[in-house]
Amino acid sequence: MCVIQIICLAVIWYLTQKQHKRNKLPKIIREEREQARNGLMKHILDNEERCRAIVRMGPIAFLNLCDILQRKGGLQPTQRASVEEQVGNFLYLIGHSVRNRALNFFFRRSGETVSRHFHSVLRALIELEDEYLRQPNGEEVALEILNSNRFFPYFKDCIGAIDGTHMRVKFLVQDVPKFRGRKDYPTQKILASCSFNMRFTYVLPGWEGTASDSRILKDALRRQYPLKIPEGKIYLVDAGYMLKDGLITPYRGERYHLKEYSRNPPRNLRELFNHRHSSLRNVIERAFGVLKRRFAIFTSAPTFGIKNQKKIMLVAFILHNYLMGVDRDDELIAEVDRELASQTRYESEQNTDSEDSEEAARGALIRDSIAAAMWHDYIS
């Protein structure tokens, strides 16, 4: 008997034993569990506030997501579990960063079943990446810029902001030092770009927490599927990144953060530029804040392998974009805005990587021309 036949027989035996164990449960217990699960999903979806607390979105958005995952992501109900239960299982885990045993109790399922449902939903959500994580082509001016005389026409070519964030992770002991940066615990860095409607357009997870912002961005620009900067367009970045024709940093040595201007208006063109640059670039900090407040898995180390950790991060960004389109939750956004306004800003690391002098000069020319036009109109 060949190895393949032995493996097939072993799999058949395992599935048979598993089905046998399941069928050994008295029928009345199986029916009680089924009723409990159905009642649980009804209980969640019958109340808007309760639904947001448990699955991190309203009932309409939740049911719409289930429909999308079934039509476009290939997620299907199983013999005993609906699509709604599987999606609820997944959202409860990433929304509250609970362990498998908590899901066992909550959904009256075995650990193996809960894990299988989780990975089914994870795969289905990744199928939506091309639809919900799209890089801008730069053909249209963002409404947030077009409708503001503080930003238009000076930033008419700006298509978004770029920044990085840290996420707690678990690694092998020998890998911990390179993932421990300014945090007291190991983290991975996630680079992302977002548009001014707070939707992410590019995500690159997986870098160790000690990596510099500029190094990660250079890698993103050179990858097989890179971060794209359309010709003549710009992204706003902080001082931790390189200055070049497609990436505009603030002026160094000048006031920058919004709190610094609360009582003292800009005194020169550099300060005016920094103030408005900060006002616009703040959108990515707000987007990160909403993402982390909605999905608690960002603030506690998940118990998955590194590959699945990266997938979960990507899926969280996809879900964020989906919800910004159908269920913004303005109360949540307001909470994040209040938190950002009250906290003391961490000073971003200064870019220590060597910059191409020609590219930096082109970037400086773009920045100076914006600042000069802005200052001319401001003092007039």
From TrEMBL:
Occurrences of domain DUF8040 (ranges): 41-126
UniProt subcellular location: Nucleus
Signal sequence residues: 1-18
Keyword Transport assigned: no
TM helices/strands, residue ranges: none
Cofactor(s) named in the record: a divalent metal cation
GO cellular component: a single term: nucleus
InterPro entries xrefs: DUF8040, HARBI1-like, HARBI1_dom
All copies of domain DDE Tnp4, residue ranges: 162-321
Chief subcellular location: nucleus
Residues in coiled coil: none
Keywords linked to the UniProt accession: Hydrolase, Metal-binding, Nuclease, Nucleus, Signal
GO MF assignments: hydrolase activity; metal ion binding; nuclease activity
UniProt similarity note: Belongs to the HARBI1 family.
Alphabetical list of PANTHER family matching this protein: NUCLEASE HARBI1, PTHR22930
Name listed for the protein in its UniProt record: DDE Tnp4 domain-containing protein
